[in-house]
Amino acid sequence: MYLLAHAMVGILIGIVFAAIVGDRRLIALGALGAVLPDLIDKPLGHIVLAGTVNYGRIYFHGLTVLSLALLAGLLIYHYRGQVGLLVVAAGMASHQVLDGMWRQPVEWFWPFLGPLPQHDYPGDYFWSSVLRELAQPSEWFFFLLIAGLFTVLYRREIGALLTGLADPGTWRMLVLVLGLAAVAALAVGARFL
After folding, report:
1. Which terminus has fewer CB within 10 Å in the chain: N or C?
2. Can the peptide bond before residue 111 be classed as cis, meaning omega within 30 degrees of 0?
3. How do the pLDDT tens digits run along the chain, 193 residues long?
4. 3-class DSSP state of 143
5. How are the residues of the chain apportioned to helix, strand and coil, as percentages rounded to the nearest 5?
C-alpha cells in the first residue's frame, strides 16, 4: 500500500483516539505511526542494507518492534497517563495489517523464524519506487484529502503560524532554510544521476 494511503488510515485512528481523549495532537501521532514502518524500513533495507537484505519490509514491519512499542506505550500510559505512544503503535499495527504481513511470516515474526532472507531488487529500486508512488493518482488524492483535513482540524494553529510569518525577519530565515534545503536536495539528487 502507498505511503499516503497508510497515513490516511493513521489519521482516522488518531481521530478516534482524539475523540476519546480530547487531544487533537493524537491525530498526527496516528499518521506518524502508520507511515513509520515505511519511513524507517524502506531506506534502511534498500539503501543501508542493500548488499545484504535489500528489502523494505523488515524490522518495523514485524511484530517484535510493534510489541516493544505497544509495551512501552502501555508503561507510559500506566505511569504517566499519556496515550501518545499507544496511538503510534496502533498506527504501526494498521500498517502491518494493510501490508498483509502475515503473508511474509519470516519478516513478520523476525527474529523468531530465522534471519531475514535476502531479496534481489535492482540497485535503483528505492528511487524508482518513490517516483512510481509519486505518479499514482490515488496518492495525490490522499495528499489533498490529508491537507484538507489538517487545514480544518488545525486552522487556529495554521492561522497563528501564518501571522508569525508576516514578520520580514521570519521570511528571510524561511527563504534561507528553503534555499539550503534545495541545494542539499540538488546535491543528493546529482549523486543518483
Report:
1. C
2. yes
3. 688 999 999 999 999 999 999 998 999 999 999 999 999 998 888 888 877 888 888 899 999 999 999 999 999 999 999 999 999 999 999 999 999 999 999 999 988 998 888 877 777 777 777 788 878 888 889 889 999 988 888 888 888 877 777 777 777 887 888 888 888 777 766 554 4
4. helix
5. 75, 0, 25
User: Could you give the CA distance from residue 42 to residue 49 in angstroms, rounded to a whole number?
Assistant: 10
Q: Which residue has the cell 524490522?
A: 59
| Grid cell for residue 92 | 504501526
What is the identity of the amino acid at 68? L
* CA 172 and chain centroid, separation: 30
Distances from the Cα of 88 to the Cαs of 27, 85, 145, 158, in angstroms? Answer: 10, 5, 21, 23
Count the residues in the chain.
Answer: 193
AA letter at 45: G
DSSP letters for 18-53: HHHH--THHHHHHHHHHHHHHHHHHHIIIIITTTTT
How many Å apart are CA 165 and CA 171, to the nearest integer? 6
